């Protein structure tokens, strides 16, 4: 959506939902771009929670120095139940008014933009979003900030597990994050040369998995690494390992859940780059009068997608890649 009269002079930036490596690079980019345009920039701490509590501070160009390489978010983050209530949103609005804030840059995922959309409808404060989630599940962008780093972290972990799996001829189930999507699992599985990849978007039964393992065993492959997305439909890593053990008591399948390791660490080159580009574009979009849009990257070009689409449209996973991974593992 584009507003007609736009004369924004004071904006605020915040991070919300799960943190993602590269969020700091986005904050830096927003603050530096806004300063370039002579805007006053504020940081809201702990996402919508801090907005409700009035935890808002002025940010200068120098305040965002030396953060591009750091994981996490210097503005902190939170998942806010209070912002789901009209009272919470009213308090948040009052805090913004108290600081004369006229525009917002929201860095986060689905929940962040759902809140932002409602907030704009109620109070009319222009909001532009930047996709920051390791899950990479937002429609309208090829990448969200943090995804590439999370995949790199997971691959590094799987490489290490591979060494011990190989030494002991063991079967390992490695569970990665992704909520109800399999983007992290698919990319981790391909990049680590896994024996099988189980994701929510493709229902793989235990029988199919067993048949696949039998095929790979034919070429004297004595160990196997199975990557399981946490939201996998036929079960998580623990459940699948249990079922294999029940069926083949001679097997001693091991389970590793990489967990929040995937959320931390220095952002990859790609994450720093897209975060910088998205932060820059977000401020310019606000100045051009855009609101209720998420900045995206499509085919390496900057794009804008409505919050409605980003939240509600389904981002398809490329199942051809799953087929390819299966062939490469045989
Ligand atoms: O959305 C990012 C994510 O890391 C998901 O992959 C995961 O399911 C979830 O957040 C975990 O959330 P929390 O850190 O609140 O436990």
From TrEMBL:
Cofactor: Mg(2+)
Tree of life domain: Bacteria
Listed Pfam families: PFK
Catalyzed reaction equations: beta-D-fructose 6-phosphate + ATP = beta-D-fructose 1,6-bisphosphate + ADP + H(+)
Subcellular location: Cytoplasm
Broad class of enzyme this protein falls into: transferase
Keywords per UniProt: Allosteric enzyme, ATP-binding, Cytoplasm, Glycolysis, Kinase, Magnesium, Metal-binding, Nucleotide-binding, Transferase
A single MF term (Gene Ontology): fructose-6-phosphate binding
Active site (UniProt): 135 (proton acceptor)
Example of a GO biological process term: canonical glycolysis
Quaternary structure annotation from Swiss-Prot or TrEMBL: Homotetramer.
Record-stated family: Belongs to the phosphofructokinase type A (PFKA) family. ATP-dependent PFK group I subfamily. Prokaryotic clade 'B1' sub-subfamily.
Function according to Swiss-Prot or TrEMBL: Catalyzes the phosphorylation of D-fructose 6-phosphate to fructose 1,6-bisphosphate by ATP, the first committing step of glycolysis.
Protein name: ATP-dependent 6-phosphofructokinase
Native organism: Candidatus Opimibacter skivensis
């Amino acid at each position: 959506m584009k507003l007609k009269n736009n004369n924004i002079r004071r904006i605020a930036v915040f991070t919300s939902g799960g943190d993602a490596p590269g969020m700091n690079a986005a904050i830096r980019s927003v603050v530096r771009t806004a300063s370039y345009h002579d805007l006053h920039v504020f940081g809201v701490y702990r996402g919508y929670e801090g907005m409700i509590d009035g935890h808002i501070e002025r940010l200068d160009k120098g305040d965002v120095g030396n953060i591009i390489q750091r994981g996490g978010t210097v503005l902190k983050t939170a998942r806010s139940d209070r912002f789901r209530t009209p009272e919470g949103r009213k308090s948040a609005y009052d805090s913004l008014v108290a600081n004369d804030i006229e525009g917002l840059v929201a860095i986060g995922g689905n929940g962040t933009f759902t809140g932002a959309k409602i907030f704009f409808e109620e109070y009319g404060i222009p909001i532009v979003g930047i996709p920051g989630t390791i899950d990479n599940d937002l429609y309208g962008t090829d990448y969200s900030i943090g995804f590439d780093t999370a995949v790199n972290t997971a691959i590094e972990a799987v490489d290490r597990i591979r060494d011990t799996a190989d030494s002991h001829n063991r079967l390992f189930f490695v569970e990665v994050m992704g909520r109800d999507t399999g983007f992290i699992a698919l990319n981790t599985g391909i990049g680590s040369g896994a024996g099988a990849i189980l994701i929510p978007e493709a229902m793989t039964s235990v029988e199919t998995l067993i048949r696949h393992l039998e095929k790979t065993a034919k070429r004297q492959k004595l160990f196997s690494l199975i990557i399981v997305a946490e939201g996998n439909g036929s079960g998580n890593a623990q459940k699948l390992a249990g079922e294999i053990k029940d069926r083949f008591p001679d097997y001693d399948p091991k389970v590793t859940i990489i967990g929040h390791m995937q959320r931390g660490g220095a952002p990859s080159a790609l994450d720093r780059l897209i975060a910088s580009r998205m932060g820059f574009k977000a401020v310019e979009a606000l100045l051009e009068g855009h609101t209720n849009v998420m900045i995206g990257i499509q085919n390496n070009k900057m794009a804008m997608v409505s919050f409605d689409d980003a939240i509600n449209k389904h981002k398809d996973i490329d199942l051809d890649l799953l087929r390819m991974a299966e062939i490469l593992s045989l």
